[in-house]
Amino acid sequence: MKLAFLHDDKDELSPLWRALSLLAVDGKEERVGLEYGRASSLLEADAIIGRDFLRGEISVLSLIYPFVIDGEKIGLGDELINEFSLPPLKGRILGIGLCMPWFATCISSYGGDNVSAIHPLPFRDSSFDGVVIYELFDHDFTREAHRIIKKGGKLLLIFRDQLYGGVSPVIALKFVVKFSVTSVTFMDKHWIIEATRVK
């Protein structure tokens, strides 16, 4: 069995968003740096092990790995229910880490028409009016979202506040590259960062 471990700067187990390296063990060890992007550097394994995963991370990692182990927990659990109200966006929308009935397609391990590929995203340039990313902070996903969103299209980055098991908006804003942030809103324990593709 091949196992993959996510490590932070102290070489301790970490969530995907904070991981700086991935250690794969299968009789021998292989370490990959994750400093500049994570989705493109994930190695094949039978299980990925970390700590304090965000819900969207678990949803996407479950598409790749048969087992996602978060400390002592395995898999999604029941807490991945939508706990926030999000008005529908207009046009063709892609959901990453989250799936709602009005999304055109989703990269998520539950609900709707799901796509299993994660990097690169299997969509043409400028093919979506918007992308909703739920609790997944990864520069690779943000760059891909920028590529597939039409000029003037919207990116919504949704995540729980750190008091409710999520992260600080200051951390989240570091992952909104190439977009122009138009609003940051807090409601229902969640932050919603709205950004527009300008170029």
From TrEMBL:
Domain Methyltransferase type, chain residue ranges per copy: 115-156
One Gene Ontology term from the biological process aspect of the record: methylation
UniProt keyword terms in alphabetical order: Methyltransferase, Transferase, Ubiquinone
InterPro entries, sorted: Methyltransf_11, SAM-dependent_MTases_sf
Pfam annotation, one family: Methyltransf_11
MF GO annotations: S-adenosylmethionine-dependent methyltransferase activity
Designated name of the protein: Methylase involved in ubiquinone/menaquinone biosynthesis
Organism taxonomic ancestry: Archaea, Thermoproteota, Thermoprotei, Sulfolobales, Sulfolobaceae
